[in-house]
Amino acid sequence: MVAIFFWAFIVGGFICVIGQIMFDVFKLTPAHTLSALVVLGAVLDGLGLYEPLISFAGAGATVPITSFGNALVHGAMAEAEKHGIIGVITGMFQVTSAGISAAIVFGFIGALLFKPKG
After folding, report:
1. Residue 112 host element (H or E)
2. Residue extents of the structural domains in the chain
3. Is this prediction's pTM over 0.85?
């Protein structure tokens, strides 16, 4: 049980270290870093490497933003097998819709409850 937590911490921390290096060393903006990490997750899933990483590290691989890229490609590929080219588009939305919807709803609730500092 301790090994699961250890590897989740190491893998998740390594992904965060990659993002921090992109900020500090390469002087990338947060938007560029976020986009690069999403693309990295998508490429790793396209190569078939992200699912074994999730099996190995659990939340260490599913919590960071790279998992969003993984979900996009994974959903698109699964639906493309069933429905062809239309499945590529619908698969991305089907897999990620719950997370995106939650972000919109909770962001709206937060905006109603809290007053921004100005």
Report:
1. helix 85-113
2. 2-113
3. no
What gap in Å lies between CA 76 and CA 105, rounded to an integer? Answer: 24
CA dihedral (68, 73, 76, 81) in degrees, to 10, reads -140
* Sign (positive or negative) of CA dihedral 81, 83, 88, 93: negative
CB 65 within 8 A of CB 41: yes
Place of tokens 């990659």: 18
Cβ-contact 66, 44 below 8 angstroms: yes
Residues across the chain = 118
Give tens-digit pLDDT for 58-113: 999 999 999 999 988 988 888 888 888 888 888 888 888 888 888 889 999 999 99
In Å, how far are 71, 73, 91, 95, 97 from 105, measured between CA atoms? 20, 24, 22, 17, 12
Give the distance between the most distant pair of CA atoms in the chain: 50
